[in-house]
Amino acid sequence: MSNTSFWKPAYQLFKPEEPLTTAEDLKNFYVQRANSPVENLITFLDMEDDPAKFLLAGHRGGGKTTELRRLEQNLNSKYTVIWIDTVTALEQYNIGYAEVVVLIGIKIFEKVIQQEWGLKDDLLNDLLESLKTVVYQDEDAENTGLEVPEIIKKLGVILKQGVTRKVTKTYNIRPQLSKIIERVNAIIEAAEKRNKQKLLVIVDGLDRHDQVTALEMFASPLLTQLSCHIIYAIPISLRYSPSFRQPMESFQKCLDLTNPPVFECDENLCPTTIPNQVGRDILNSVINKRLASLGVAYKGLFNPDALELIMEKSGGVMRDLVRLARTACEVSLRLDLIYVDLDVAKEAVQEVRREYNLSDYHFPELDKVHRTGCLTTNTHSLPNKGQFVICDELLQNKFVLGYYNGSKKSWFDVNPILLEDLQRWQAANSPQK
């Protein structure tokens, strides 16, 4: 057996950009986390008679999509669940509340058509007319009758290009958005009454956007005006931003998906160098559950000290743990090895570390977070960005990671993969004796 054929199955198991989405993957590879908000969300939804709006915050790659897929599967028999993936449906740089509102309207319209809910035609026709208005305001669209498939296809193109950029500049989109919401709400009310099931919309992918875009999007009241339960995934930097305190009050709850900690904090919520065994056991299970699916030949593929380093340097971020494991497989293949030892793990860590780009103004804040376990509100200004809170950027880029202690109190620390960089800065900037 060639080295490539040996390493390929393990390599294929570790795909950092692919969350667990299917029932089979969740059954085979999911590892329960003590801080998962899924059970709390189920309870909150059961308690709510009126439409509730929730936010789910966490780091990019922290496992929000996997947890929301678990929620979807747990509630499929109890609710009519509509999953919306904004990453595939919308363009990252042309997105705002307008695109999100129109997309939700489209997905609800499609769900009605696909499942033949038996609603009155005028409800669907009214919504379709509102959606058509967006299409016909597109400067490239011909004002001719379009059939439903063409309308949906055209809307998809406009959403990708950005509603507020693509439609005629003289057209005020907001009144039409309000009309779309009004007509979607009429469909929701009729559907829930007829099907005797509440509607739950899960909007995934909005956590991938920058701070300014996310703040503008979620500050809009339109995202809370739909008459159904909705869960939005948001960036962790938005959740802790001082600018978001007031807009966040429009939502029933903001739940946190924090990372399994790889180090302990002390009684004052300050980081320590003491390994957190509970958190590391979860990460260990994530790796070994996947390897177990390959059989006994792959048992012990990672030496214990190599696995310990990979777990530590992941900071508890699931995507980064998987990326480190995948990179270690690449290095081992390159070195013609049949296992991952500590030297391989160190090389994998260095390769992944190169993906992080620190600037001089980051280090004083990293130092403060590492000493205190708290975020700061200090700001910095850049020509192309203006003034911003430095810790918002540190969270967004995973330079700083968030955790809970045993009492579910939040604390923060520098991403362990950057600790050596911080230590070098501290040594260079320590007072000279």
Structure description:
- This protein is an alpha/beta fold and about 425 residues long.
- The chain folds into two domains: about 1-15 and about 260-433, no CATH class; about 35-255, Rossmann fold (3-Layer(aba) Sandwich).
- The chain contains 20 helices and eleven strands.
- The strands form four sheets. Strands 2-3-4-1-5 form a five-stranded parallel β-sheet, with helices on both faces. The protein has a two-stranded antiparallel sheet with strand order 6-7.
- β8 (about 380) and β9 form a beta hairpin.
- The longest helix is centred in the middle third of the chain and has 23 residues, at about 175-195.
- It is globular and about 70 Å long.
- The model is unreliable at about 165-170 (pLDDT under 50).
Gross CATH architecture of the largest domain: 3-Layer(aba) Sandwich
* Number of extended strands: 11
CATH topology of the largest domain: the name is: Rossmann fold
| Total separate domains | 2
- Gross geometry: globular
List the main descriptive attributes of the protein structure presented here.
KAP NTPase domain-containing protein, KAP_P-loop, P-loop_NTPase, globular, 2 domains, Rossmann fold, two-stranded antiparallel ribbon, 13% strand, 11 strands, 20 helices, five-stranded parallel sheet, alpha/beta, 433 residues
Secondary-structure map with pairings?
Elements (H helix, E strand, L loop, with lengths): L2 H11 L9 H7 L8 H10 L5 E6 L5 H12 L4 E6 H4 L7 H19 L5 H16 L11 H14 L1 H4 L6 H23 L3 E6 L6 H8 L10 E7 H4 L5 H4 L4 E4 L6 E3 L5 E5 L1 H16 L11 H11 L3 H17 L7 H12 L8 H11 L6 E4 L3 E4 H7 L3 E5 L5 E5 L4 H11 L4
Parallel strand pairs: 1-4, 1-5, 2-3, 3-4
Antiparallel strand pairs: 6-7, 8-9, 10-11
Helix pairs in contact: 1-16, 3-4, 6-7, 6-8, 6-10, 7-8, 7-10, 15-16, 15-17, 16-17
